Amino acid sequence: xxxxxxxxxxxxxxxxxxxxxxxxxxxxxxxxxxxxxxxxxxxxxxxxxxxxxxxxxxxxxxxxxxxxxxxxxxxxxxxxxxxxxxxxxxxxxxxxxxxxxxxxxxxxxxxxxxxxxxxxxxxxxxxxxxxxxxxxxxxxxxxxxxxxxxxxxxxxxxxxxxxxxxxxxxxxxxxxxxxxxxxxxxxxxxxxxxxxxxxxxxxxxxxxxxxxxxxxxxxxxxxxxxxxxxxxxxxxxxxxxxxxxxxxxxxxxxxxxxxxxxxxxxxxxxxxxxxxxxxxxxxxxxx
Length: 287
Ligand code: AMP
Ligand code: MN
Ligand code: MN
Ligand code: MN
Known about the structure:
The longest helix has 31 residues, at 87-117. Strands 1, 2, 3, 4, 5, 6, 7, 8 and 9 form a nine-stranded mixed beta sheet that branches. With 287 residues, the protein is α/β, with parallel strands linked by helices. The protein has ten helices and nine strands. 45% of the residues lie in helices and 18% in strands. Residues 9, 14, 39, 251 line the site of one manganese (II) ion (MN).
């Protein structure tokens, strides 16, 4: 048995480490399999894959999509085993990148308005870009505010500026997200399910419905779930026959965050991998 981590972010989205550095960190942590799941981009997968080949770390290509479903916004869907060169996927991701760029400009403009009323100098979007290597999001605007000394940490940046000045994101419609992941040979897994709702009955109904739409699995072991949540999700996955996955949601931004370790220091066994790999292989064969 070995250890894995199926939810890791790199500097291609809002993580700190480059894809290559992630592999080094995985080696140091004794993690044999990782899935790179950047927000709305697969740009880091090739580098991670190459570094993985050199060091013996198995890299599963992944992505984390922000999806809307019914009244729920920002439902996170993980796609595993996707063909990261598929034009159908890349075209959709590019469209999202363009929308995101417009949104970032609008958020920076709103933040600047607020800064001006406080008698502080406005941010230039180049300052934000300089702090990002790939997909830019609110955390990068927050880091720019920190660099200016306007806030002490990212949480304060969100509380004082990024929440009040937020501009809604464009979300994937759930049906499109599931169809796209499947069409490019992937397996669709609901990330940190208790962030969608903490009400067990609501989650039960939602996940049952999502399964009829094509959802393949639940990220049962994740950083945002309590032990009780994980037991509930484990039971739900077993009852519905959904795959069970596990990941840290490592960004490298918070103190003590470690690749391959979840809340309370739990590690993720790669005994969960074979059913996921089998379904991904079947999906790839069905294309
Ligand atoms: P964005 O996709 O640009 O809206 O940025 C979303 C990211 O910002 C999330 O993945 C979190 O890492 C972070 N975030 C969102 N809301 C908050 C909040 N209220 N406090 C701290 N971090 C947040
Ligand atoms: Mn993130
Ligand atoms: Mn997420
Ligand atoms: Mn994530």
